[in-house]
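Next comes this protein.

***
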Amino acid sequence: MANLIVTGGAGFIGANFVHYWSKVSPHDKIVVLDLLTYAGNRHNLDGLEDVELVVGDICDTDLVSRIMADHAIDTIVHFAAESHVDRSITGPDAFVTTNVIGTHSLLKAAKKAWLDEGTGRPHRFHHVSTDEVYGSLEADDPAFSETTPYAPNSPYSASKAGSDHLVRAYHHTYGLDTVTSNCSNNYGPFQFPEKLIPLFTLNALSGKPLPIYGDGMNVRDWLHVEDHCRGIEACLRRGKPGETYNIGGGQELPNLTVIEEICTAVDNAFAADPSLAQRFPDAPAARGLASNTLKTFVTDRKGHDRRYAIDETKAREELGYTPARDFPQGFAETLAWFLAREDWWKPLLERAAITR
């Protein structure tokens, strides 16, 4: 039995991981440490009676140390991060604080508990990072591998690159058992509606514009969040100390293709279920119109990376990881979740104006 801290476990990917781990390892103890900022939501953990939520800041090293001592923590799965690129452009300070200083705080607490005062019990610090640390690819460039040089282009990706380097340094300098995973673009349940897929899905349901940056041909590799959780599980169980693994979805798609998939799926859902027109009367699909009439092209984002792509060969060969879903299947599941969970996302939209 393992005792885990999951940082950011009330956020999008973290909460999905907590639900996933509670199913595959039901006897493990999970403590979620989350500051419950705008993207953290305690209701993301509803139904998990055995999971303890501690509302606190990963920058509070003393708090982390107390949790580790009180619960005999042997595993940290570190999701907590500021992650929205647009927000990093207008307010980079929070990204440096959370992503760099916060990660260093966790590493210090882990080193103290497991190495300086440790009993020799096996431990693991798993750091969840992003493919954005590698920069941008041209159309014919090979996909990112674990040996691709870092070239971050936004304050967000630069702060994540800094945290990656700290994790690496704590392994090579102090011998801390660390593993880092760099993932591609996630989507799925509980995703805060500022990111592309939930934003465009909910805008299509409410008849709001679908704002497309530039020419819409920026390419991303799309990864369903449960496949990401499976990849993290593989890293925790079979990853080699000090190693990095790229976790991808194998679905490299231009934004326009993703948006067309969203529009078509929404239209088909309304055609199949007439009650949706009553629930979402402002949707074009409620009036028999195409959702893609909402598409609007807007000025491109500053420093917008053109293409990301993940080569997950190492994870496949060393960990046995392969994604289980293609994008149509994964998005169909995601749309069904959002249609069924208006009680989850509607309060978020009522509390804040969501901008892209």
Summary: The two ends are 42 Å apart (CA to CA).
